[in-house]
Amino acid sequence: MSGIVLLVLIGLGAAWLWTRGRKRLSMPVNGKTWIGVVIVVVVLLALAYGATQTPHSSVP
């Protein structure tokens, strides 16, 4: 459960940086931008973490 919380916090940090960059470039920022960036970052980090884990084998 703490891993999910960490993923969301990292996603929020990435969204904050993304929106700051968009504001600096005079691009519009709204709630959909925040949610989209958080979801993309969380999914990508979860996939990257899952790809690095070795599967557990039940064969003795």
Descriptive notes:
The chain has 60 residues and is an all-alpha fold. Helix 1 packs across helix 2. The protein is 75% helix and 0% strand.
Provide a short characterization of the protein structure.
The protein is an all-alpha fold and 60 residues long. It has 2 helices and no strands.
What labels describe this entry?
60 residues, mainly alpha
Q: Largest sheet at a glance?
A: none
Q: How far apart are the termini? A: 30 Å
Strand content: under 5%
**Rg on CA atoms, Å:** 16 Å
Structural category is: mainly alpha
- The count of strands amounts to 0
* Fraction of residues in H or I helices: over 70%
Succession of helices and strands:
HH
Choose one word for the global shape.
Answer: elongated
Number of helices: 2
User: Which stretches are low in confidence, meaning pLDDT under 50 for 5 or more residues running?
Assistant: none
Mean pLDDT: 87
